Amino acid sequence: MAKRYCYFFFSGYYVTAKAADILEINRIDCRIVKSPVILRNGCSFALRVAAEDGDISRYMIERAGLNISGSTVMNGRY
After folding, report:
1. Can you tell me the distance from the alpha carbon of 54 to that of 68, in angstroms, rounded to the nearest whole number?
2. Taking CA 76 as the corner, what is the angle to CA 70 and CA 78, rounded to the nearest 5 degrees?
3. Of the candidates 1, 6, 70, 71, which lies 20 to 30 Å from 47 by C-alpha distance?
4. How many separate domains does the chain show?
């Protein structure tokens, strides 16, 4: 069974990398990945976290003042 992931989309790569730094400081496993083509909204990168960490990740990113342009939960291929 494929693992479920939460993908967060931002306005650009810099903001995506900043969000990844925030989550890594708080010991939440995350990875910057290429956005699935059908979900791209300006930036071709997304931040991927495990689905069970999605809510706390969103809270930490928004608390840091970063704008999330979109998010979705999907089954991962890896």
Report:
1. 12
2. 135
3. 1
4. 1
Query: At residue 2, what are phi and psi to the nearest 5 degrees?
Result: -75, 145
| Cβ contact 10:47 at 8 Å | yes
**Rg of the chain over all Cα atoms, to the nearest angstrom:** 11
Residue 8 near residue 49 (C-beta atoms within 8 A): yes
Report pLDDT digits (tens) over 23-49: 999 999 999 998 766 555 667 889 999
Domain with residue 40: its CATH number is 3.30.70.790
Helix (H) or strand (E) holding 48: strand 45-50
Q: Which amino acid is at 29?
A: D
User: What's the pTM?
Assistant: 0.85
